[in-house]
Amino acid sequence: MINLILLGPPGAGKGTQAKHLVETRGMVQLSTGDMLREAKTSGSAMGRRVAEVMARGDLVTDEIVIGLIEEKITGTAGGGFIFDGFPRTLAQADALGQLLDKAGQRLDAVIAMQVDDAALVARVTGRFTCAACGAVYHDTLHPPRVAGVCDACGSTRFSRRADDTEAALKQRLMEYYKKTSPLIGYYYAKGKLAVVDGLAEMDAVSAMIEKVLDSPN
Ligand code: AP5
After folding, report:
1. Does the CB atom of residue 179 touch ligand 1 within 6 A?
2. Catalytic: which of 123, 127, 179, 192?
3. What are the CA-CA distances from residue 105 to residues 2, 176, 189, 216 (Å)?
4. Could you say which of 14, 19, 179, 192 is catalytic?
5. Mean pLDDT by 10 residues, the chain (217 residues)
6. pTM of the predicted structure, to 2 decimals
7. Per the omega criterion (within 30 degrees of 0), is the bond before 143 cis?
8. Residue 24 C-beta-side C-alpha neighbours within 13 Å
9. Active-site residue flag, 123
10. Residue 60: CB within 6 Å of ligand 1?
11. Residue 141 CA, ligand 1 centroid: distance in Å
C-alpha cells in the first residue's frame, strides 16, 4: 500500500493523474479542493466563508483543511492515499506527517509535477468537469470522445469552476509560489521527492508516475 502526494501548481494535472491511479491501482484520492467545494454547497456559514476565499484564489486556513484530512485518514480503509492539493503549506506538511504516524502509516513518495505558467493558464481556462462523475476534460487538449457526452459515465451535464478565470489563477499561482513551492525542498530533504514533467502527454505523465510508484523511496 503506497501513500503518495501529488504536488504542483494549479492546472499541473494532479486531479487528472489522481483519477487515473484510482482506476488503475484502486488508490483513494483525497483532494482537499473537492472536499472544500462539497463544503461550499452545504450552505453552512463555514461553507460560505470557504467559497469567498476559494473564488479569490487564496488558501483556506490550515486548521480547516487539516481537520478535513484527519477525518478521511482515520475513517477510510483502502489501497493507499493520493494526497491531491494537500499539503499546501509547511504547517500542513508537518501535520500530515503526524497524522500518518498516528495512523501507523508512512508517506512513500512525493511527486512534483512541473508545468510552466503559460501552459497553466491555457489548461485552467479551458477546463470543465462532468457534473455527475467528476471526470476532467479540456476544450481543446482533452475533449470528450463524443462532444457533450462524458466518456466515463455518459452524462451530458458539465460544469466549470468559479476560480478558473485568469484573474483568480494569478492569485492561485501567487499563493503556490509563496506558500506551497517550499514543500519541494522540504520533501527533497526528507528523501521523498521525485520530479515529473507535467507538460508531457497525459499517458506519458501517467507512465512516469507509475515508474516512481514501482520503486518508491
Ligand atoms: P484545488 O481544487 O486543489 O485546485 P488546484 O491545486 O488549483 O489544482 P487544479 O484542480 O486547478 O489543477 P490540477 O493540478 O488538479 O489539474 P487538472 O488535472 O484538473 O484547490 C482549489 C482551491 O481550494 C485553492 O485555490 C484553495 O482556495 C483551496 N484549497 C484546496 N486545497 C487546499 C489546502 N490544502 N490548503 C488551503 N486551501 C486549499 O488539469 C487541468 C487541465 O489540464 C484539465 O482540463 C486537464 O484535462 C488538462 N490536462 C491535465 N494534464 C494534461 C496533460 N498532461 N496535457 C494536456 N492537458 C492536460
Report:
1. no
2. 127
3. 9, 27, 20, 15
4. 14
5. 95 96 95 92 86 94 95 81 98 97 93 95 95 94 97 97 92 97 98 97 97 87
6. 0.95
7. no
8. 13
9. no
10. yes
11. 15
